[in-house]
Each structure stands twice: as structure tokens, then as C-alpha cells.
Amino acid sequence: MIERVKTTIPDKFPVTHEMVKDFLEKGVSLQEEIKAGNIYIVDYEILEVVPTPSDVLFLTAPLCLLYKNRLDQIMPIAIQLSQTPGEKSPIFLPSDNEDDWMLAKMWVKSADLLVHQLVTHLLKTHLISEVFEVAMYRQLSAVHPVYKLLKPHVRFTIAINAMAREKLISDGGIFSQITGVNGDGIAKVIRSAMETLTYESLCFPETIKDRGMEDVLLKYYYRDDGMMIWEAIHSFVSAVVEIYYESDETVQEDVEIQGFVEDVSSGMNNSHKFPESLKTREELVKYLTVAIFNASAQHAAVNFGQFDCYGWIPNSPSTMLMPPPDQKGTVDMDYILKSLPDHECSYTVLATAWVLTQFEENERYLGMYPDTCFTEQPVKEAIKTFRKKLEEVTNKIKSRNEGLTIKYCYLSPDKIPNSVAI
Known about the structure:
Number of helices: 16
Number of strands: 5
Number of domains: 1
CATH topology: Lipoxygenase-1, domain 5
Strand content: 5-15%
CATH architecture: Up-down Bundle
CATH superfamily: Lipoxygenase-1, Domain 5
Shape: globular
Largest sheet: 5 strands, antiparallel
Helix content: 40-55%
Structural class: mainly alpha
Distance between the termini: 23 Å
């Protein structure tokens, strides 16, 4: 969600230098810090489409401004709990009453949980991978090289999504129980997210660059590890495509591939934002890299940290039981405790997050092709090279993590399942 503020803070979030000057480097203005690339924003506007869950469950669509200090730490410096500024929507600051500031941060993390689960996780990995899988079975024969390439990366995806529709995101399902967002609210968020979803937003290097996050943080391990995985997958796919396609013309003449791409575009319900055909080998390589990366690495990154984030309820409350404060100085610890989810909701969150972050006993990880779909020696050699690159990435991540207090392991290749299967 995080983006670098490239020019100005949005008008709907009227933060001034006077408000935050005490939290910036001494003698430097807010605008100067923006120009230097040190100011970031997270905007949960998408939650505005969700109706208020009930009279006893609450949600907001907050905005949060963050600052990269000289220690390369990202620190929140201003929070607004709605999309509409005004007297009833104050901008909370670190200098406010300690309880005010703590509760404001909890509201941001609660909103983050909702967007994470419904958009980043459910839509952009689970549902997107299902579209690729259905199109693959419809359009590609079992002997087609792209079918063989993608098969390990769609394993169990339709099955796990069917289970999610039945038990997690249905009316009265687990998600509604722990958040108060019913089936209609879930559908509204996903439909809203689909309006801005593009093919480019699924291309890892492009989405990192689009958010202005390509080279501004030294400790952005999701970006750094993700780029290594993307490059390894892209290199592997490129080797496989070059084996089977002699020229760009052979891609254009492959009716199964063109049917597959058109089917995916149709399945996204906004076809003009996704390719409807592919004209070159490089386009095919990038397209297949997107499919494989999102089903494997991206899903691992957003799935297997759930218990770490949500296992301590105040860190990311799934819902709030008291309305957000509309003025400063009205919050105390009693109000905060009454705002947090109750015991029943909390242990449902814990149990669900725990189950969803467990690896299968016979898990198949990135680089594993156990079904021997490929019999050609050049492809077998390409798989060996791919595994070697992934092993190098794993070792590099392990070496880096040795110096970290909190290790970042979610994009270590030895912990990335091949497919969306949990």
C-alpha cells in the first residue's frame, strides 16, 4: 500500500509543515522532505465503498503520512481517520495524547488488514491465479509447453478458492464474523479494486516503480527479495520460450496461446486493461512471468506473514467495536480496550491466521517440477539452472537475515510454494 509522495500531499489530507515540523529533521521543511523522497503515504480510500457493518462494528477509510528519518526508519507522523477533512475528522499526530495516537494507529492497521485480505491477498493472488488456471484448461492442450510450464503453478488453486468462497468470504462466513463486512461489502471492495487493476499492476518491477519505491529505502526487503525472484523466474521462462518459439511470428501463429491470452483478458472483466494478444517472444515471457510470480512469490509474501502480523490483536484489529474518535482528547485506555475485538472474534482471528500460514507436509516449492511434464533435455537443463539461481537467492537472503533482529523470510525461495494452495 505504501507510496512515496512525489509532489504534494492530497488536498483531502491537509497536513501542514507546522503540524509535523517537530517530527522532521531540524531545519528542513515538509516540502523539502517530499522533494528528497522522504515522505510516504498510505491511503485506504477503497474502504469508502463499504457500508458501515452494523451499530456495534465500525470501520473507516483512513490516510496515514509516514516519514523516512535519517536512521532509514519509516515512522507515522500524521493520521486522518476519514477521507473528508474537517472539524469532525481531526489529523492525529505523535505529539497528541498518547491514547489518541495509539488508537489512531490501530485504526490504520485495522483498515490495512481489510485491504490486505480482500485486495492484496484474495483478489491479486487467489482470484487472479484462478483466471489463469481456468483459461489454461480451456485453451491449452496438455502437450502444449506453456501448459506444462504453468501446471505446477495452478495446483490446488481452484480447490482452495472454492473452499474460501464457501467458508471464508460467504455471507456469515469467517471473514464476516471477524470483520463485520458482509458478502455485499466484500463484493463492493473487490469490484472497486477491479476498476483500477491493470496488467502492469501485476508486473512486480512496474508496480514497485509506479509507487515510487524502487530505490528510496535501504530496508525494503519485500522489494529487494521480490526483484531477485522476479528476475530468476523471468530468466527461466525466457529460456523455455526460446526453446519452443523460434521467432516472434511463431508466437503470433500459436492459436492456443492467443486463445489463452484472450480468455484471461475476458476473465478479468476489464479486458482493455489486459493484453488480448501477444506479438513477440518477450511479451510472452513477461506474461508468463506475471502468472508464475503472482501464484508463487507474491502469494507467499502476502500469505505466510499473516499470523506474525495478526497474532497480536492490537497490532492489527480485524474490526473495531467503538466508533472512531471525531475530536482529540476524548480517548483513554478504557476506550481503547472497548474498541478492540472481543474474545470470540480474537480467537477466531488467531485460529484462522494460524491455519492459513502452515506449510503442507509435502509442499512443492518454487523450482520443483516433479510431474516430469518436460522430457526435452534443453528444458531439463533450464530447470537445473533455475534451481541453482533460486538456491543462490536463498543463501543470499539467509546471509542477510543473520544480521537482522526480525528476519524477513517470506520471499526466500525455499519457503515459496509453487502455487496458491492455502
